[in-house]
Amino acid sequence: MSFRKSLFTFLLLAVFLFTALPVQAASPTVNDEVGLFTPEEIATMNQIASEINQEIKGEVFVVTTTNNTTDPETFADNYLRNQIGNDNNGAVLLLDMAQREIHLSTSGNMIDYLNDRRIDEILDSVYDYMVQESYGQAAISYLTMAQKYVAQGVPGGHYRVDRETGKITRYKVLTGFEIFIALGIALACAGGFFIFIKSRYQLKSGTYAYPFAEKSNFKLIDKEDRLVNSFVTTRRIPKPPSNSGGGGGGGSTTHSSGGGTFGGGGRSF
Predict the structure, then answer these.
(1) I need a surface site. Which of 2, 38, 73, 114 has the fewest CB within 10 A?
(2) How far is the C-alpha of 264 from the C-alpha of 269, rounded, in Å?
(3) Under DSSP, is residue 107 helix (H, G, I), strand (E, B) or coil?
């Protein structure tokens, strides 16, 4: 057999094996078990979700059910964990038609993008559409508002509140002005240091070469790691109702479930 025929046979076999291997499909954005949405509405949801996913480096979902007999929060948390794992970036809107409950569960950076106040506003909009039986528009409204809030970024002064322990974790978010000032100070310090060294030694290119290999000596005698821009305080707060988005303001109320941390909120319709 010639080399050309052998190469052709090898390539043909490789293509066959590649196409025969099972390919794991990505998780669908919309899991409409009840059949509430039209194909056009699902296409719109998929498009918006794809744009959100690129921004958050995660996934967002919509699920409908009539078979859930557990607490809607538990169902939504478990659904999100099964799709993306614990503490990864994502969110899911549950439309529980049997229990007449709406629940929005968040994980990872979506806990910070969708704080309690923003979740309440999303749920207000979703609720209005649900009572009108405009189910597709309810889900589209959730995705549209989530996309808007992601584009706006994490609110200034944001913090997380653990509803079980009352622990508050604050996050420092640098503004554009603060970044500009920091860069200006850094450039000024670097320029001043350069001018000081040049004026002191008056080194000119090509006239002097410092024997750094013979004269340099470096010895690391201590190492210290410092955590900056993280502030944690604790206080006891009342446990919010299970159908509430939480305490509002600039914070996100969180809870632990199945080894992961989740935010979110819900209400009846």
Answers:
(1) 2
(2) 17
(3) strand
Q: How far apart are CA 182 and CA 85, in angstroms?
A: 37
Contact 75, 94 (CB under 8 A): yes
Local structure of residue 66 (DSSP, 8 states): S
Helices 135-152 and 116-131 cross at an angle (nearest 10°) of 160
Q: What is the pLDDT of residues 81-99, one digit of tens each?
A: 999 999 999 999 999 999 9
Q: Which helix (H) or strand (E) holds 244?
A: none
- Sorted by where each begins, the domain ranges of the chain are 30-156+258-268
Assign 61 to helix, strand or coil.
Answer: strand
Q: How far is CA 45 from CA 94, 137, 250, in A?
A: 14, 10, 27
Distance from C-alpha of 79 to C-alpha of 70, rounded to nearest angstrom: 12
User: What is the radius of gyration, based on Cα positions, of the chain?
Assistant: 27
pLDDT of residue 234: 54
pTM of structure: 0.66
Domain 30-156+258-268 listed as CATH 3.10.180.10: no
